[in-house]
Amino acid sequence: MNISGLFKKMTIAVAIGTWSLTAVAQNVSIDLSKLVLNQSVRAVNREVSMVENGAKGSYIHLNEKPGAGVAWLEGVKFTNGTIEFDVKGRNVLQKSFVGIAFHGSNDSTYDAVYFRPFNFKSPEEERRNHSVQYISLPGFDWPKLRSQFPLKYEQPVNPAPEPEDWVHCRLVVENEEVSIYVNQNLKPSLVVKQLGNQKGDKIGFWVGNQSDGNFANINIK
Q1: Which CATH superfamily is domain 6-220 in?
Q2: Which regions in the chain score pLDDT beneath 70?
Q3: Percentage helix, strand, coil for the chain under 3-state DSSP, each rounded to 5
Q4: Residue 167 and residue 184: Cα distance in Å, rounded?
């Protein structure tokens, strides 16, 4: 059964035990600190740490390493609906790629949407045009998409956020269409049709090659 905005059985481990939540067309906020405390965040090619009392309250930090990395939120399932979260990268050229992976089947098969904050306010139009990106792995990574479909799967963000500010992302997945809204903008920064026919339901925070990243306040509908 595929119902928009449905966690079929979202199981979250908490300090006093384990509880299950089935939500239909409801907003569900994920307590990231409890997920980390109970080892319900599984990192791939990264280490995960929890930062307390930051600008966004408690948030997750993924460290910098070569290659892409994902922090899967174990027990949290998503197919269609809306994911909202806050993300913070850095203004360092080619060393800040931050976003979210979804429709994951395994550690190398998933869709992802991510930002290149160092391009947000670049004086070069070509770099600004590469500010937000959609990919579908393993078949459609960014080099292939940029080469074969220029500016179809990546776009600028207008108005452009400050490169080192927290950015609020609203990702809407409906009828095989992916739309990305940034901060309070009513117009999406990027709208694409899904590629790769991904059928998985795993989600996780994503960082690219040589990138770290901070993530907070994830809410799923």
Answers
A1: Exo-inulinase; domain 1 (2.60.120.560)
A2: 1-26
A3: 10, 50, 40
A4: 10
